[in-house]
């Protein structure tokens, strides 16, 4: 698979993460060598997007295991590696892929409890690499299943960034768009800027330009006007956590977009891997919503436009009820309503 964008690079001794805080003005990789450094990069949004966060966390565990195998004795190895897991788990609360990836890594560790620290580190590194490869395969499958939903000539609106930058490669929502393009379909992307962190303006628009896919950037409050005037054919977004009934947490502003799409009878799709579905939550009411730094709202980088002392609310995500969703595109196919039933068939007990 041709990869126009490399979100992360692994060389066995370090994880290099493309610093998405600096795009598109600067192209720079941040090097992580420990679980703490990886968690810091996740928390500060050097890397973002649910699948990419999961992959990064897995590599963070592998890095910590290798570091401790060289530094710690066998008596302190296990508790210190457990601390590494805890640091990564605490990095961001909403994206369930983070916890799914760490659980997968922890299972490998538990199965290797009689091995030497060096052997455990080797197995954890192999598992992280496998998880990374699996994510690319999953994204390609999501693209194959979702591409038929995009008509030739479609104008596709998306929110935030659910492309290669948010995954190991190809992307979820943007992966569907890429796959439709690769099938020879003509299409254009309408990228919402996605306040307050501007992932649509900085990242999605940049990705589409790299891929030579026509893209038009709009501010978030223009979406309703474009729908009302017949300039949008469908909406595709990613997800950070999906409850068992299909309720979906995604970047703040997604819920409003879904309401607008329903009002104008425009199909609204969610593209996400099965690892984003949290069967432990019956609905979206208990999905934890991350509250981020007020400075993301009062300004951007070195520019501040809001007055000092103003009160700020900055939820990073909102929850879209499943009744507003047309379909959930996964690596095993497209789930339609009733979502509880469709999702349950993919997670047999």
Quaternary state of the chains? single chain
Low-confidence stretches: none
- Backbone CA Rg: 20 Å
Strand line-up across the major sheet: 6-5-4-7-10-15-16
Task: Supply the helix-strand structural class.
Answer: alpha/beta
Beta-strand portion reads 15-25%
> For the record, what CATH class of the largest domain applies?
Alpha Beta
User: What is the typical, i.e. mean, pLDDT?
Assistant: 95
The fourth-level CATH homologous superfamily of the largest domain is: Translation initiation factor eif-2b, domain 2
Question: How many structural domains in the coordinates?
Answer: 2
What's the helix count?
11
Order of helical and strand elements:
EEEHHHHHEHEHEHEEEHEEHEEEEEH
Largest sheet: 7 strands, mixed
End-to-end Cα distance: 35 Å
Q: What's the architecture of the largest domain, going by CATH?
A: 3-Layer(aba) Sandwich
Bulk shape: globular
User: Could you give the count of β-strands?
Assistant: 16
Helix residue percentage: 40-55%
CATH topology of the largest domain: Rossmann fold
Topology:
Blueprint lengths: L7 E3 L4 E4 L10 E4 L2 H9 L6 H22 L2 H16 L6 H16 L5 H30 L7 E5 L14 H10 L4 E6 L6 H12 L4 E4 L4 H6 L5 E4 L3 E3 L4 E4 L2 H10 L4 E4 L5 E2 L16 H4 E2 L2 E2 L12 E4 L6 E4 L2 E3 L3 H8 L3
Parallel strand pairs: 4-5, 4-7, 5-6, 7-10, 8-11, 10-15
Antiparallel strand pairs: 1-2, 2-3, 8-9, 9-14, 12-13, 15-16
Helix pairs in contact: 1-2, 1-3, 2-3, 2-4, 2-5, 4-5, 5-6
